[in-house]
Design goal:
114 residues, mainly alpha, 8 helices, 55% helix, globular
Length: 114
């Protein structure tokens, strides 16, 4: 979609963008230990599937995805520019609440800043 088409659509409706980050992370088939890293190795909750925590424990994974092939990188970059402006990051507040990390949301969002 061209920039002019996006602007035209924004004038008519609310657009929801998905940069496909979750799908790309799923393809890596990460295990629980991959999500925990050293920082949260003894955390009492299951962290597998908490993609936001990877910004803290495995930032290289997030960076590698952001440097993916051109089409994916552009998709992520466009969505990220818009999402960064609203500090949403995949409904991080809702997702993080499922693992009891509501108090850590500002830290996670700061660590994930593009």
């Amino acid at each position: 979609m061209k920039k002019s088409e996006i602007i035209s659509q924004l004038e008519k409706r609310i657009l929801v963008l998905d940069g496909a980050m979750g799908t790309l992370i799923q393809k890596l088939k990460l295990e629980e230990k991959d999500y925990r890293g050293e920082r949260y190795k003894d955390h009492p909750d299951n962290l597998k599937g908490n993609y936001d925590v990877l910004s803290i424990t495995r930032p290289e994974i997030i960076r590698d995805i952001q440097k993916a092939p051109d089409k994916v990188r552009e998709c992520v970059r466009v969505a990220a520019r818009i999402i960064a402006g609203i500090k949403d990051m995949g409904m991080a507040g809702v997702l993080i609440s499922t693992v009891g990390w509501e108090d850590k949301l500002p830290f996670v969002l700061d660590e994930a800043r593009l």
